[in-house]
Amino acid sequence: MQTETFGQTLRRLRQQAGLTQTCLAKQVGWSQSQVCRAENDRSLPSADIAKQLDTVLHADGELHQRYHEAVAERQARTTARRVIRPRGPRRRQVIGLAGAAASAALLPAGLARLIAELDTPWPGRVTPSDVAAVEQGIVDLIDRDHRYGGGPIHHMVLGQLRWATSLLGGSFLPGVRQRLHRAIAHLADLAAWTTADVGNVTAAHRLAAFALQHARESGDPGIVVHVASIWSRILTQANNPHAALEVLDLAYRHTRVIPPPAVSMLHVMSALAAARLPDTTACQRHLDLANRAFRPPTGDDPGWLAFFTAAKLAGDTGTALFDLARTSGHWPEDTLTRSLSDAVATYPDSRARSKAVAAARLAAFCYRVDNLDEANQAARLGVRLAHGVRSVQVAESIAILADTAARHQRDAEVQDIVTDAHRILARYPAIQTVRT
User: Fold this and answer.
1) What average pLDDT does the structure give for the chain?
2) Are β-strands 171-172 and 125-126 bridged in parallel, bridged antiparallel, or unpaired?
3) Are 148 and 140 in contact (CB under 8 A)?
4) What is the distance in angstroms between the CA of the first residue and the CA of the last residue of the chain?
5) CA angle 385, 388, 393 (to 5 degrees)
6) Which of 4, 151, 353, 428 is deepest in the core (most CB within 10 A)?
């Protein structure tokens, strides 16, 4: 279910109350045109008017919450425009962040400023429904991330993170604070992931450290495992596999109390890091352990595990083998093509980013071994999906595809695919083609 905007919520509540825009406007000292503009999300009222609207429409805080979310998102976009992309941190700095988060030390200054810019009020008492709203927002944002990549949504995630962290200033019933810390950890983890997906790796590391701190405070070892695994993936993609493996050590301490899909996920993360070293033996060992431990997530598993499906396992296995082949020079044709083909066949279209990456890498491998028919078919799919996604991950895979396909430039269909791939890459000036 998609989260409503402030305007959509206002219109729904007004209609449920049986009020016209003019009637509602009179009750709060507004004009009909102002109500119309607010319902169309063209403007926001003042905080006082928003509170009056919530009271008049008997919204029990729902409209007031939507108002704060809209304000937070707007402020997040404004802040993000002022951010200058810094250079990536060294490995020791990354491990230092993990250690600081694990010991609940002070946040890094840049991240502290990011989170501290909160000027929206929090409720006096934080209820389970407040936390449930944050949790549902995470579900909606994850779905958008899978469909469109980090580019279109990372500002939205930061806005939601602002609101969630502001709730920490309220008072809590027993158990609610821990639940909120767990939700904040998951949301900050998503913020780290989407921020890395737009190329700002330094900010992503800071957000991951923030997520790990709240995961610790939640007392839930599962969310610690999730945050550590996603952080390790960010580090691996930034070509820092040693740091990725050290972060994963935080997660392996909890393998006795997490479900089998989470154990499988950890081994896949280790395989991805080992592939970048390269360490062929370790990579293959972790892939074998991942396949042994895997089972599809069920309704009894925590929500953050829902993404780790059979398609995800196949896609990550194929990615690990592809990266290992590029770093080691050994190309295991059968296992690599089988894994990537399975991922392409089983990923739903709603997982557009993951499906595009798998298709682009399958195409690159098939071009390398001169299997043009299968390469062109996979390449067309990867390029088509990539047009609808804003993601550095996808762009890097398309760059590899374009470079590998270029060796078959005499083929007319390949020429069209390469041309289309370069149209996509034109949106990512920092991405360079890489020889495979």
Assistant:
1) 86
2) parallel
3) no
4) 41
5) 70
6) 353
